[in-house]
């Protein structure tokens, strides 16, 4: 690895892309290490009424009865979680546009990173499929409004603010997979409290996928920290200063009173995903990558280290000052 930095590199992005290229074999191994063979992993039909059976409509009625007591705010958060999962075409395109990932521009490539992006999004695709069908059968959501929102989200595109930098993208995905895991776990707890054990199991199962994907992305970033600690710290600092942009941000065109803003406020109010969670994720990642103990850093990296080691506490203080919203107007998704 040491010879990598002996070559003249025109800029930081080119260096980061070169590091990513050296990790292609790690990405290829991760497909088998962290992902599950399609013949073995769960599929949406494992949790849904079997429409080929004679008692299919009875199963649907039981599903609808289970969801009757779920609070509208939980349905709203469930829809928001589902919409985020349904924008997968944007996420795969985002990943393949990173420097050092798919230089040949072939989405069917056997390159390790391209294999990973396909297999990862294939697993993620089941999440939106399952939640979409469950909500449709429940009758608790205005599915036409939901479909319009998904349409808008995919049409509007996605910008994780990573500037095609693979380091920043690995930070983003490590953070985001953990955030979605937390949101699904907490939604599942509220579903169980409302009496829908099946939906609770669905949310926990999806969260299990997110946990595996989180481990993969954290391992990719751990490799980057080992090879290029200064560059990795700089990328981590950049991403945190921009703040993590949630994937569902562009679910409509509004600049004020947007669907995403209302969805976020409800998630905070219900404890599904909060500012405390944001702070705890920062703390977790700084601990995971042993940021505080790094030594021998360049000046700019040492400054980034100092910033990152105090950031979680800053967000915790912000969270403590926030007052929970007493009245939040729900988005148009819930009947």
Structure summarized in a few sentences:
This protein has 335 residues and is mainly alpha-helical. The chain is 66% helix and 0% strand. Helix 2 (24-34) runs parallel beside helix 6 (112-138).
Write the SSE topology:
Elements: H1 12-22, H2 24-34, H3 56-67, H4 72-86, H5 88-96, H6 112-138, H7 143-156, H8 166-193, H9 197-227, H10 229-242, H11 259-270, H12 275-288, H13 299-321
Helix pairs in contact: 2-6, 2-9, 4-6, 4-7, 4-8, 4-11, 5-6, 6-9, 8-9, 8-10, 8-12, 9-10, 10-13, 12-13
Tally of DSSP helical segments:
13
Poorly predicted runs: 1-9
Described by the principal axes of the CA atoms, the overall outline is globular
Give the DSSP E fraction (strand runs of 2 or more residues). under 5%
Q: Number of DSSP strands?
A: 0
Biggest sheet features: none
Distance between the termini: 57 Å
Rg of Cα set:
21 Å
Mean pLDDT: 90
């Amino acid at each position: 690895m040491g010879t990598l930095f002996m070559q003249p590199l025109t800029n930081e992005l080119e260096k980061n892309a070169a590091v990513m290229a050296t990790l292609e074999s790690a990405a290829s191994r991760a497909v088998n290490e962290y992902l599950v063979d399609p013949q073995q992993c769960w599929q949406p039909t494992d949790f849904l009424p079997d429409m080929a059976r004679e008692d299919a409509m009875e199963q649907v009625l039981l599903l609808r009865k289970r969801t009757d007591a779920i609070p509208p705010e939980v349905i709203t958060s469930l829809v928001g979680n589902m919409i985020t999962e349904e924008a997968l075409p944007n996420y795969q395109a985002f990943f393949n546009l990173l420097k050092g990932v798919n230089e040949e521009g072939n989405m069917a490539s056997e390159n390790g990173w391209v294999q990973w992006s396909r297999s990862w999004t294939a697993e993620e695709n089941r999440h939106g499929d399952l939640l979409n069908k469950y909500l449709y059968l429940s009758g608790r959501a205005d599915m036409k409004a939901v479909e319009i929102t998904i349409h808008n989200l995919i049409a509007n595109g996605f910008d994780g603010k990573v500037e095609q930098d693979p380091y920043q993208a690995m930070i983003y995905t490590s953070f985001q997979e953990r955030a979605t895991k937390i949101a699904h776990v907490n939604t599942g707890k509220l579903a169980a409290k409302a009496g829908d054990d099946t939906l609770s199991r669905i949310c926990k199962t999806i969260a299990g996928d997110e946990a595996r994907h989180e481990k993969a992305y954290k391992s990719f970033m751990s490799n980057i920290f080992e090879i290029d600690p200064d560059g990795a710290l700089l990328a981590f600092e950049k991403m945190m200063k921009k703040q993590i942009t949630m994937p569902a941000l562009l679910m409509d065109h509004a600049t004020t009173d947007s669907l995403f803003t209302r969805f976020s406020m409800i998630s905070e109010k219900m404890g599904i995903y909060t500012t405390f969670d944001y702070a705890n994720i920062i703390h977790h990642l700084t601990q995971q990558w042993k940021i505080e103990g790094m030594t021998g850093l360049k000046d700019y990296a040492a400054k980034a280290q100092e910033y990152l080691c105090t950031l979680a506490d800053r967000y915790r203080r912000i969270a403590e000052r926030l007052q929970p919203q007493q009245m939040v107007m729900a988005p148009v998704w819930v009947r």
